[in-house]
Automatic annotation (TrEMBL):
It comes from Planococcus massiliensis. This is Prophage pi2 protein 38.
Length: 104
């Protein structure tokens, strides 16, 4: 799956979506995704296999299990294993729910 494929999947949820950040302030809920690192397997001076670690960040003003489960279901249906972390950003008054995946 490519980053473009991932963006198309996430856009199906119907919430504002951006790579890395929005250019203007957004009202939660919204989703941001970004590549946090990448790697390649090389042999004979050729990159044979590339991967990208991607964080999908859901921002909500109140805990939203329904939306979190929609993202989890979307990832599972597309065979994208994920790890999950959550934090509260006091200064912004929002929860940030991060789904970390690897695109191959």
């Amino acid at each position: 799956m490519t980053l473009i494929d991932l963006a198309n999947l996430l856009s199906r949820l119907g919430y504002p979506l951006a790579y890395s950040h929005f250019k203007s302030e957004q009202k939660p809920p919204f989703i941001v995704y970004l590549v946090t690192s990448g790697d390649s397997f090389s042999a004979d001076n050729t990159a044979l296999h590339e991967s990208a670690d991607v964080d999908i960040e859901l921002y909500v003003d109140t805990k939203n299990l329904t939306l979190e489960n929609q993202i989890k279901t979307l990832l599972k249906q597309n065979e994208l294993p994920f790890s999950y972390a959550e934090t509260y950003i006091k200064e912004e008054g929002v929860f940030k729910c991060t789904f970390s995946i690897q695109l191959i």
